[in-house]
Specification:
This protein has two domains: 3-130, no CATH class; 134-249, no CATH class. The chain contains seven helices and eleven strands. The chain has helices at residues 3-14, 23-33, 61-78, 132-140, 151-158, 164-172, 241-249; strands at 40-44, 47-52, 97-102, 105-112, 121-128, 183-184, 194-195, 206-212, 218-223, 227-232, 235-237. The strands form two sheets. Strands 6, 7, 8, 9, 10 and 11 form a six-stranded antiparallel beta sheet that branches. A five-stranded antiparallel beta sheet has the order 1-2-5-4-3. This is Knr4/Smi1-like domain-containing protein.
């Protein structure tokens, strides 16, 4: 089994999994396949990550060029559908990447370098969070539409451009149909961000409250220079609101970052 065949098999095994699974299940999945030599394979926070090493140090421009070539060639060889706009992508700042999907799992191939003395690698990650609009419709029913929102006016009033998945949710669902996962405020009631608690300690954030969980924990966007995550009940999450709603409605738990 070569690297492409190995990745295809991972994708094939993930396609039937409509909801996220834990590290134990993903580790068992990998063990049942067996990985080819030369690959670094690990499970981390509900993701499968495969590294292809051997591209040289970042000081060599040829290292990046060779890695980017592999990313695009491998993306074609995998034969998976292209990723969507709301699909999970934790390598959005990578210099070269390809975004695919395997069912409800986002597949990202990216060129990664973690420092001047660390060799360039190609990283392939499989993380739950693709085709979430479809999964939300399966869990909460199809969208019925909602009163339109003048997003330009709202942005001017609160000083923040809200994420595309939030806009889509409000335009398609509003608040009531998804209240089993969260009680979301109507966009017209949102206010300017407020100073938030220090987390991690010594780090400053602003918060834009957008709703609450059924248990009463506040859901708020975290702002550094721009929206960078969600704060739910005092914990920070790097996933978006749509991802949170799908995972919650599926009866699963988000992996928090801090």
């Amino acid at each position: 089994m070569n690297a492409v065949e190995f990745l295809r098999e991972i994708a094939r095994r993930l396609v039937p999994l409509a909801d996220p699974v834990g590290d134990k299940e993903l580790t068992a999945l990998l063990a049942s396949i067996g990985s080819p030599a030369g690959l670094a394979v690990r499970v981390d926070d509900g993701r499968i990550i495969v590294d292809l090493p051997g591209f040289g140090l970042p000081s060599d421009p040829a290292a990046f060029a060779a890695a980017e070539t592999v990313v695009h060639q491998m993306a074609k060889q995998l034969g998976l559908p292209a990723g969507g706009g709301f699909d999970r992508d934790e390598r959005d700042l990578a210099p070269g990447r390809a975004r695919l999907r395997a069912g409800y799992w986002a597949v990202v191939l990216a060129v990664v370098s973690d420092g001047p003395d660390v060799p360039v690698i190609v990283e392939i990650s499989f993380a739950y969070g693709a085709d979430l609009q479809k999964r939300l419709a399966e869990l909460a029913g199809p969208p019925l539409g909602h009163a339109p929102v003048d997003w330009d006016v709202l942005t001017g009033r609160i000083g923040v451009q809200l994420p595309e998945d939030y806009r889509w949710l409000m335009n398609q669902y509003g608040t009531a149909p998804i209240s089993a996962a969260a009680v979301l405020f109507e966009p017209k009631t949102l206010r300017r961000p407020i100073a938030g608690p220090m987390f991690p300690v010594g780090d400053y954030h602003q918060l834009l409250p957008i709703g609450a969980t059924p248990a009463g924990n506040e859901i708020a966007y975290i702002l550094d220079w721009e929206i960078s995550g969600l704060r739910i009940g005092g914990r920070r999450y790097e996933t978006g609101l749509l991802h949170h709603l799908v995972v919650t409605l599926a009866g699963r738990h988000l992996v928090n970052q801090s």
